[in-house]
Amino acid sequence: MRDFDLSPLYRSAIGFDRLASLLDNASRNEQGQPAYPPYNIELLDENHYRITMAVAGFDNSELSIKSEQDILIIVGQKQQDSGDRKYLYQGIAARSFERRFQLADHVRVVKASMDNGLLHVDLVHEVPEAMKPRLIEIENPA
């Protein structure tokens, strides 16, 4: 069990309370996070990311992806099987899920696609022009 005391950060830093809250929530939710479905998070290049989630057995109509503020929510709502099947062994999980990802500022979803039972969600980190570094020219007096 990992416990971090973040109170010194609250005392000496201003404006970092959101970061401290994220760290606190991440450590608290680590034990309760379900392992299904498995997923990868890749860094494709400096500003592009991809979440790949194994969703074998799900149809596109059973999946939904929603991005609201700084949270990406991927939901799989499995439809009930109408057939009368008698399984001798059922090893393929066919259960519904909801997976949430906390996004950094200025990260947005650009596309989602399905390929061979894998859901790919591509994200990009776009820094607004006003926040990019800029060169200030030094003027000579006239």
Task: Write the topology of this structure.
Elements: H1 7-12, H2 17-29, E1 39-45, E2 48-54, E3 63-68, E4 71-76, E5 97-102, E6 107-115, E7 118-125
Antiparallel strand pairs: 1-2, 2-7, 3-4, 4-5, 6-7
Estimate nothing, just give the exact number of structural domains.
2
The major pleated sheet works out as: 4 strands, antiparallel
Which class best fits the helix and strand makeup?
A: mainly beta
Output the strand order for the largest sheet.
1-2-7-6
CATH class of the largest domain: Mainly Beta
Proportion of residues in helical segments: 10-25%
Radius of gyration: 21 Å
How many individual β-strands?
A: 7
Overall shape: elongated
Report the uncertain regions.
Answer: none
**Cα distance, first to last residue?**
66 Å
Helices and strands, in order, run as HHEEEEEEE
Q: Can you count the helices?
A: 2
Question: What is the CATH architecture assignment of the largest domain?
Answer: Sandwich
Instruction: Give me the CATH fold name of the largest domain.
Output: Immunoglobulin-like
**Which band does the percent of strand residues land in?**
25-35%
**Mean pLDDT value:** 81
How would you characterize this protein structure?
- This protein is mainly β and 142 residues long.
- It is built from 2 helices and 7 strands.
- The strands form 2 sheets. Strands 1-2-7-6 form a 4-stranded antiparallel β-sheet, with no helix packed on it. Strands 3-4-5 form a 3-stranded antiparallel β-sheet, with no helix packed on it.
- The longest helix has 13 residues.
Summarize the structure.
The chain has 142 residues and is mainly beta.
